Amino acid sequence: MDQLVLDLAALIAMSTPLLLATLGVLIGERAGVINLSVDGSMLLAGMVGFAVAFTTQNVVFGFVAAAVVGALVAAVVGYLGISLGLSQTAVGFVLALLCTDLSSFLGNPYVQQSGPAVVAWPIPVLADIPILGTILFHHDPLIYAGLLLVPAVAWYIERSRPGLILRGVGERPEALYARGIDVVRVRYTAVIIGGALIGLAGAAYTLDLKQGWTYRHTAGTGWIALAIVIFGAWKAYRITFGCYLYAALQTIASRMQVNDWNVPTQVLQVAPFVVMIVVLAVVNSLSTPAVQTWIVTIPAPMQRLFAYITSPAPASLGKPFDPAG
């Protein structure tokens, strides 16, 4: 029982950086902008965040620097994809490669250096609650912020008027433009705020979860974040479940390795990625015409369940908008 409690607490901690990244992707994509630079952006922001924290011996400065780097990379995606109308997919992919190489080149002096890290901050009284206190209230401020950010983002997107505008820009930008909404400004704002969260996710690894800097420190995590957003059907709470599911798979793989199940280490390392890809493929297959034809023949409650699982992407995702056109 004690080990299960500790594993659940670790699962929440492990999920936080991925949660920040996925929420950043969600905000941008609900506005209709694809940002495929996530993996490289996280690496570069994590490296810069650690370098700044190492140089100043101040973790807060490190997180601010990481957020700025993530926002700047996202601004480049915005300029090339929104203002110039270039392929957002191609732009993001190239930036992902560029930022990855930059992080390796610029981060060379900081490899395996010991720097400052986020300090644990158990919440008084709440941390003493049996079981629940250990799981939820024995963490550091970054993890608490991640937990609070989920309902905040969900409420903003689904319940607030600015969130309605954000969703409208991602669905029917022409209609909002006709009502006097500055579509370009909304998209820029969304992608830059999302980029800042992605930058914070990178620093969450180097200054908290996987303290320090090494080459390709978070390599692959950004692609998982993009997959989880699709898996979560662009909804905050479902994305959160996806992050926890991925962290749980990593925890199970680690337990199998520790308990000597005679499974090759390489298999355990890639297993969470494979499982997420399979789950993503299954979810997406439910949207195919053949499956949809079959779904209409099953009972109504099951139809509603499948409709919930297969929520479509924003209609204008990745499509440029020209106010003059």
Number of domains: 1
**Pattern of helices and strands:** HHHHHHHHHHHHHH
Record field, number of beta strands: 0
- Overall 3D form: globular
Q: Helix count?
A: 14
Give the fraction of residues assigned to helices.
over 70%
Structural class: mainly alpha
* Low-confidence region ranges: none
By oligomeric state, this entry counts as single chain
Straight-line distance between termini:
62 Å
Task: Give a brief rundown of this model.
The protein is mostly helical.
Key descriptive features of the protein:
single chain; 325 residues; mainly alpha; ABC transporter involved in vitamin B12 uptake, BtuC; 14 helices; 0% strand
Question: Could you please describe the fold and organization of this structure?
Answer:
With 325 residues, this protein is mainly α. The protein has a single domain, classed as Orthogonal Bundle (ABC transporter involved in vitamin B12 uptake, BtuC). Helix content is 71%, strand content 0%. It is built from 14 helices and no strands. It has helices at residues 2-30, 38-56, 59-83, 88-106, 132-136, 141-159, 161-171, 173-178, 183-209, 221-231, 236-258, 265-285, 289-295, 300-309. Helix 6 (141-159) crosses helix 7 and helix 11 (236-258) packs antiparallel against helix 12 (265-285). The radius of gyration is 20 Å and the shape is globular. The model has no long low-confidence stretch (mean pLDDT 87).
